[in-house]
Amino acid sequence: MLVMRTIGLIGSGNIGGTVARLAVAAGHQVVLSNSRGPETLAELVAELGPRARAATAEQAATAASDLVVVAIPFKAVTTLPTAALAGKTVIDTGNYYPARAGSLSDSWRQQPGTPVYGPPYGTFDNEKGQPAGEDVIRADLAAATR
After folding, report:
1. Is residue 19 in a domain?
2. Are residues 43 and 73 in the same domain?
3. Are 94 and 72 in contact (CB under 8 A)?
4. What residues make up the domain containing 111?
């Protein structure tokens, strides 16, 4: 038996919007927020229907029955309503890489579709997800071309 939950979403861009669509399709309520304010989410809320509403980030965290999805850029993490998140299960969709090698001008080498994009976590056919060794990562980085 499906238990309908209210899921709070802090960040309603590509990832947050997709999670909201999936949650509504599964029968859950969603409370959406973003950094620009609830009024900017009218189109997405209309698309999602009566199971969705817009709010501030703090309201989204407070309204969530027990699950909050955070889908914001890493630079915005200090804006999270920490008190409202206390006691909640929080899923962070961020993909923070603290030790990215090279200059900003070389950052294209680690974009989707380049050989180095997946190997730090193993090849896609490796179901166990064993991290690749430094030699594999360096070789794939060297092989990445524009």
Report:
1. yes
2. yes
3. yes
4. 104-143
